[in-house]
UniProtKB/TrEMBL annotation:
It is found in: Nucleus. GO terms for cellular component: nucleus. Pfam families: WRKY. InterPro entries: WRKY_dom, WRKY_dom_sf, WRKY_plant. PROSITE patterns: WRKY. Residues 181-191 have a biased composition (Polar residues). Residues 47-112 form the WRKY domain. Signal peptide: none annotated. Residues 181-212 are annotated as: Disordered. SUPFAM superfamilies: WRKY DNA-binding domain. GO terms for molecular function: DNA-binding transcription factor activity; sequence-specific DNA binding. This is WRKY domain-containing protein. Keywords: DNA-binding, Nucleus, Transcription, Transcription regulation.
Amino acid sequence: MRANSDLHVCVLGYGCRSKPAPAPAPGKTMKKQKRARHPRFAFMTKTEIDHLEDGYRWRKYGQKAVKNSPFPRSYYRCTNNKCTVKKRVERSSDDPSVVITTYEGQHCHHTVTFPRGAGAATLASQMAFSAHHHHHLVYNDLPALHSPTTQNPLFSVPAMSSSLLQPLHCNRQELQVASYTTQASSISSPGSVPAVDKGLLDDMVPPAMRHG
DNA sequence: CGGATTTGACCGGCGC
DNA sequence: GCGCCGGTCAAATCCG
């Protein structure tokens, strides 16, 4: 059962930790890089589903109770062994119906299965990744995730266009309908955030998807 | 039986 | 220096 009745996505932003990556201290198993250098971005999804399907396969590798939230935070890693993308999933303490998903890194492969019910997650993630590619959106770091009222969302997706729920049938025009340019410009102060243009759209839509 | 999930322990960063 | 906290590991467990 997919509770996709009220899917609402807000891309919060992305950024790289500005902290210098320290030399890997002599730990027991080289504890990876403590400070990730990968681009990160987070978006909020108003959904009852904890783990949104975004077209990629994720393996859960941890779960922790976090200080600011009564809900645990889950840690996922892309199951593709060549892909180091990670994501964190947690519920907003302010609004339990809102799931905050934080992606870290970029997929080096396409989706294994195109999402059906939760296209917003994929769309938002691809938008943000694409935005990173195009240097359209630059955040120093993530804004306060736990303060949805003061955040500065880049995109807002109040309602999932039915076209987005048609996997493999999304063509350029359909996606353009859902490119949220007007939403983004109305939410953000003029000029601060460039609208999602066709170039961006072009980048976020895999070639295989375009001929619909 | 293989892959995914759970869960407690461990480690490092950071603030005090 | 110490304690808190977030992030990751890895063994155990679950599930198809």
